[in-house]
Input
Amino acid sequence: MDTKLTLKLDKDVIEQAKHYARHKKQSLSALVERYFRFLVVQEDKSEPSDISSTVQQLSGILDPIDEQQIRADYTDYLVRKYQS
Output
């Protein structure tokens, strides 16, 4: 069921939105509704979710990261690269 909604917006924003809606061949109401729906979906997606079974299966395949070894390897790489 459609319900009327009154919004107060900057005049320039309204004109730009109307132009955009005409360009997209949609009503301004349809664009606003689509945007609100988008916001709600994004909010739902941002909630923590369970880890998928695929990610759980992949967990632990790689060795834990040894940051000191990575830094040492990278330093060695840079030394070899820039040595004259």
Observations:
- The two ends are 75 Å apart (CA to CA).
- The mean pLDDT is 84.
- Residues 16 and 75 are 53 Å apart (CA to CA).
- The helical segments are 11-23, 28-46, 53-58, 67-82.
